[in-house]
Amino acid sequence: MIDELKQIVGAANVLTGADMARYASDWTGKYVSQPLAVARPANTAEVSALVKWANRTGTPVVPVSGNSGLAGGTKADGALMISLERLKAIRDIRPQARMAIVEAGVILSDVHNAVEAQGLIFPLTFGAKGSAMIGGVLSTNAGGSNVLRYGNTRDLVLGIEAVLPTGEVMDIMSELHKDNSGYNLRHLLIGAEGTLGIITAAVLKLHPKPRAYATAMVAAPSLPAALDLLNRLQEVTGGCVEAFEYMPRLHIEVHKEIKPGAREPFDEPHEINILVEVGVTAPRDAIPGPDGQAPVAAYLEQVLADMFEEGAVLDAVVAQNEAQRREMWERREAAAEISLSRKPAIVSDIAVPLDKVDTFLTIMETRLPQVDPGARPVIVSHLGDGNIHYSVWPASQDEQVHDAIIEAVEEEVRKLGGSFSAEHGIGVSKLPSMRRRKNPVALAAMRAIKAALDPNGILNPGKLLP
Amino acid sequence: MIDELKQIVGAANVLTGADMARYASDWTGKYVSQPLAVARPANTAEVSALVKWANRTGTPVVPVSGNSGLAGGTKADGALMISLERLKAIRDIRPQARMAIVEAGVILSDVHNAVEAQGLIFPLTFGAKGSAMIGGVLSTNAGGSNVLRYGNTRDLVLGIEAVLPTGEVMDIMSELHKDNSGYNLRHLLIGAEGTLGIITAAVLKLHPKPRAYATAMVAAPSLPAALDLLNRLQEVTGGCVEAFEYMPRLHIEVHKEIKPGAREPFDEPHEINILVEVGVTAPRDAIPGPDGQAPVAAYLEQVLADMFEEGAVLDAVVAQNEAQRREMWERREAAAEISLSRKPAIVSDIAVPLDKVDTFLTIMETRLPQVDPGARPVIVSHLGDGNIHYSVWPASQDEQVHDAIIEAVEEEVRKLGGSFSAEHGIGVSKLPSMRRRKNPVALAAMRAIKAALDPNGILNPGKLLP
Questions:
Q1: A198 CB near a chain B CB, below 8 Å?
Q2: Containing domain of residue B386, as a range?
Q3: Which of A147, A166, A177, A390 is the best mutation test for B, with the most CBs of B within 10 A?
């Protein structure tokens, strides 16, 4: 078997035993597995040859690129891992058409750097950008910080090339903004977590690089008032709000405890603290005046002052320089450290409709103490996406109580029409939730599609579908 | 059989014979068929019961809503037509969450009116908006005039409810902006032309209503220069360009011939004439000053003046009032009359990458005379989408030559990575193109999905897939 793999990718690119270590364990360390081997193909044709071999021999295949997922999607016991890391060409950047054509093994931050040199951005970004690769980014439909303005990965891709479970190469590397010729297979493979095909290349949409940002901390009287603020800011900026991040009181307090020098955002403490960032491309909004301030910042100040007068905003501070902006972002970016500063922390990644975030949190104020009296929620939310990272510090040390907390969170999310996996995907970690909570008709349709495209069940088996 | 249908939807809602006339012929009059019967269910449960009956009896089913398609997607010989027209509830409008929940039989312009009363827009719009219904709009992934800014139908839908070919109801009426829990079945059914399921309801995304528009006619020195202009306008307006419509010299000339009072857009004739419209939501851009002009118009004038100085624009006229704006739009909207003012006209609906429109048109300048010396192209293009309505007035009266023209157009489009169906879909009209030009691996995958979800092949058979 190893010999056959070596014939396809060359002896140096078939790893076994201890050489597989960095592929066989993901970065969280939670998912450690025993692959059969790791193959590192040089191009799409070699990926195709490997998958054809696997399909013929009935060998499970697990694709891996940056391996920075959070859901165990690359767990590979008894499987051939196909690493996309050598497919690392940026094939083309076409600034006038606002697109980049890249292979699956290109690191996300390398895409950022290459297109920024052309005055453009690929706006998708998140913590693991320095190791995540395009293949995994697409396969998990990754989210991150700029989804509010630019959408998820799905919204930033025009075309893909993928090796199907039979080993055939499906070249739908469309560069088109309009194409109504049959089922949308691109959207089917994006977010399929490598269970329907291995994405080997993609056509990415680019956007103009904002010339200036205006950033503020805002205290709102309520979450519905905060949503009004977002809608109003979207209206007056023409949809240029890039971040709208909610941090409750506890976030601010723990931040001060664990970070030396961390400060309150306002003179008085407030319950609802929101980080707002607006990005503008128009020179008239961006070029600083004699006072050194970009017009967008003065403009944001004016909107916030108007809303303060109306009582729709309780307090607001606009960053006057990059240091003040960094301070605001550092407070937000400390979220993971804050939630993990006490152990155990029960984490979740949920989404509800935009106007139901308040309802969800209010319900949980009653429900959580019923399950575990004394438990405390540690929350941070991409409020503009309805995405809440709702973590809990339990009072009880009983694992059954911890499971009951997850159950309660997911049940209330379901009642509000929400999702138990907003951006991290299913992998193996959310299979129980998928089994219990996914609409059964939709789940059956997914299984039918999987069986139709992958009759031998070789591609990333045991992931996504329970 | 008719009795069974009557038991499901009531006697008054099963039509046969002459009563079927308005369903059995589409508005183009090109696709006339002989359905078995037309059933008009009142709700999703009745749609489900009808489809279960059809699946059990092996009866073909053709869904129909507004019946305003251009591709023959509702041709229904020997089939049960299921009309969605009675599913006409606007179930909910939630302005704060920017969404509307509507049923398949709601007419597009009724959605427009209902949400505009709330200061919002559902931006999708096209000529047939007064008869097209949401079910068909989603099933064909309809395009239209505002795609440049807001995307196709696909980009404006958060969730759907659909009756699958087995008759099961799939309720994925998500109101979420983020949901990574399994394959994206919404995107699979949108644009599937009723072959994978009958969409019965949808959650639509709404946008703020622009407060003011600035509209201009611009003469550009070349199509690449025009694309630069678009990119620059997108940059300075933060992506607020709503229309960017290219009309070549011939369009202007024929317009003057066929429309009394029609005028040249500029003092001097130009080859490349572009209608630009920018829509703004910010009060500071929209509220007219003492001169009655909204700031956005002055602003657009400034950008165009700067580009004129650089030679990137040859001439430009900004509409100073609504009458001037209407005149600009009437010139564009005369496109269908212009292309059909001589018979025969060979029409097409193609898309190429944004930066290949010029290449395509240049190639056709050589290729078209080789196929039919004396033939003239009549072009209008949604230039910002890469979508060209490339019609031809042939010199030859020979139908084989006309077929050769279509063949030449589609072949050059294919070489440039384009699509033979940008926005109208496949239906029955583009089945030959689908057979000859669609990527065969993608086509095989589509067939596998169709067979998996519709094993008895009852839903809209003979459409979309050759």
A1: no
A2: 342-423
A3: A177
Nearest CB to A170: which of B182, B282, B439?
B439
Distance CA A331, CA A262 (A): 8
| Boundary residue ending a domain (A336, A366, A393) | A336
pLDDT tens per residue across span B282-302: 777 777 777 777 788 888 888
CATH code where residue B188 lies = 3.30.465.10
Residue A125 identity (one-letter amino acid): T
pLDDT averaged over every residue in chain B? 94
Taking alpha carbons only, the member of A178, A201, A196 closest to residue A446 is A196
State whether the Cα torsion B419-B421-B423-B427 is positive or negative: negative
pLDDT tens digits along A92-130: 999 989 999 999 999 999 999 999 999 999 999 988 899
Residue B343 to residues B30, B338, B375, B391, Cα–Cα distance (Å): 16, 11, 12, 11
Report the range of poorest mean pLDDT among A218-227, A333-342, A382-391, B5-14: A333-342
Is residue B257 scored above 80 in pLDDT?
Answer: yes
Average of per-residue pLDDT across A440-448: 98
Q: Quick one: residue B278, left, alpha or beta (phi over 0 = left, psi -120 to 50 = alpha)?
A: beta
Q: Are residues B56 and B126 in the same domain?
A: no
Residue B244 sits in a domain of what CATH number?
A: 3.30.70.2190
Site of tokens 């301030």 = A293
Q: Round to whole Å and give the CA distance between B418 and B390.
A: 13
Tokens (6 digits) for A213: 């940002």
| CA gap B191, B175 in Å, rounded | 20
